[in-house]
Recover the amino acids of this structure.
């Protein structure tokens, strides 16, 4: 029998991570995080603004730029379409929030807080209550997290990260400068062919949500669109930088409507785009154009009252993934670690969730990639779940906690923390956990767990959200 080098590596990484946890516990205690309180404001009308900026180096081949989302250490070889960042100032007379949409794989909360620190004087001056960065999670963009580099080196390019930070700050300020009064409208469309799910539980939430700002002066409308499908259409063989299907989505709407478009993903855990074509490039174009057509066809809308609220709740997120922890020790990713009493490592990251309200619409900004069942229900029973555990092992779905089936979820927002898997579907490789994929008793491969923080992620998200809902003044059944 040969030596299982991955099993040996997994044991070594686990031992190193446990020593790291012990060191963290000796150095300091985790400060208590108070319950956040909502900030509420309103006015006679909405005041919104938009700005967009291309974020590209002069050449993608003059330095090493890691392509994010598939195998590590893969360099960019060319440009398919440009990476952009956009910002939307959404407010009324009493205050505002900034929503940034970025064509990137993600940012850690540490980096989001660095950007906010740079924008702090601007926010104090303008009355901005919250800056939020929604990442599209394109698998053809630059590595802005770190773990798609030539390991054990980070995949982040310092010059590009500086350009990205500068660009985000610039579009935030420009969106404020471009603000004007108008009305905000909410509309929906179903696009069932635009999702493909290969992992269980197969819960489809095929709703495209459109927030449409109509300026009173008749200038260009601003649309903020949300749909749950990974921008990974170009596939792992692609070597060209791209925003993936959101590029075609925005371009199609601009061409037909001249509307300024931002895009953010929903609960995208295990949710791929539709299978429109065997040709990857064609599939990418068709995915974007199908979503654009659905957005353009929305003809029933609700005007939202200019009443807003924002509640940002930091929380400690337990980390059991020894591999990701080891990479953070090497400086591959940026994160702040704290001791905690939960999980195998008893260590946590500091993350955050934000609950926004626009009129009656509730919007939840989540870190990472949530499996849809955790948001909308549809858990499998004990006999059919991968871990052989009942539905009761899973937390109450977020829409039920909110008491709102129309809760709008933005994933990969303000933190990149990997997948959030239902506990009764969570299966690790017994010999090399978090390093190699597992195969469950049904013969199904489990890759997502290797890129999750661990088993406790789902309950941590649900319990934090429950506290937020209570703080916002809502009631829950439990």
């Amino acid at each position: 029998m040969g030596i299982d080098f991955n099993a040996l590596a997994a044991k070594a990484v686990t031992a190193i991570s446990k020593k790291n946890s012990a060191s963290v516990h000796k150095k300091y205690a985790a400060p208590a995080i108070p319950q956040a309180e909502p900030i509420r404001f309103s006015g006679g009308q909405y005041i919104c603004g938009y700005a967009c900026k291309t974020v590209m180096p002069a050449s993608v081949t003059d330095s090493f730029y890691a392509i994010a989302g598939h195998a590590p250490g893969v360099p960019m070889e060319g440009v398919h379409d440009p990476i952009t960042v956009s910002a939307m100032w959404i407010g009324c007379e009493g205050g505002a929030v900034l929503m940034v949409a970025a064509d990137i794989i993600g940012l850690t909360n540490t980096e989001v807080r660095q950007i906010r620190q740079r924008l702090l004087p601007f926010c104090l001056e303008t009355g901005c209550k919250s800056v939020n960065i929604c990442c599209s999670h394109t698998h053809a963009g630059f590595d802005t997290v770190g773990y798609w580099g030539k390991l054990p080196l980070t995949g982040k390019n310092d010059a590009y990260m500086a350009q990205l930070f500068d660009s985000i700050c610039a579009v935030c300020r420009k969106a404020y400068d471009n603000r004007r009064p108008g009305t905000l409208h909410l509309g929906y469309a179903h696009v069932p062919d635009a999702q493909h799910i290969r992992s269980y539980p197969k819960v489809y939430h095929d709703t495209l949500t459109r927030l449409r700002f109509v300026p009173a002066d008749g200038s260009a409308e601003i649309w903020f669109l949300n749909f749950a499908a990974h921008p990974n259409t170009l596939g792992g063989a692609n070597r060209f930088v791209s925003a993936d299907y959101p590029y075609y989505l925005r371009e199609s709407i601009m061409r037909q409507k001249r509307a300024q478009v931002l895009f953010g993903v929903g609960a995208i855990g295990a949710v791929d785009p539709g299978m429109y074509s065997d040709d990857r490039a064609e599939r990418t174009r068709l995915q974007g154009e199908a979503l654009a057509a659905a957005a353009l066809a929305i003809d029933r809308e609700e005007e939202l009252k200019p009443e807003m609220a924002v509640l940002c709740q930091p929380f400690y997120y337990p980390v059991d993934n020894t591999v990701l922890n080891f990479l953070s020790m090497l400086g591959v990713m940026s994160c702040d670690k704290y001791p905690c009493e939960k999980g195998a490592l008893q260590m946590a990251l500091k993350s955050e969730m934000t609950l926004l309200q626009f009129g009656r619409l509730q919007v939840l900004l989540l870190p990472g990639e949530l499996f849809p069942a955790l948001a909308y229900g549809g858990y499998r029973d004990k006999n059919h779940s991968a871990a052989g555990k009942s539905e009761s092992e899973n937390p109450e779905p977020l829409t039920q906690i909110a008491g709102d089936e129309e809760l709008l979820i933005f994933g990969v927002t303000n933190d990149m923390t990997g997948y959030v898997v239902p506990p009764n579907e969570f299966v690790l490789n017994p010999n090399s956990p978090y390093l190699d994929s597992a195969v469950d008793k049904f013969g199904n491969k489990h890759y997502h767990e290797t890129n999750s923080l661990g088993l406790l992620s789902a309950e941590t998200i649900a319990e934090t959200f429950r506290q937020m809902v209570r703080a916002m003044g809502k009631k829950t059944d439990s």
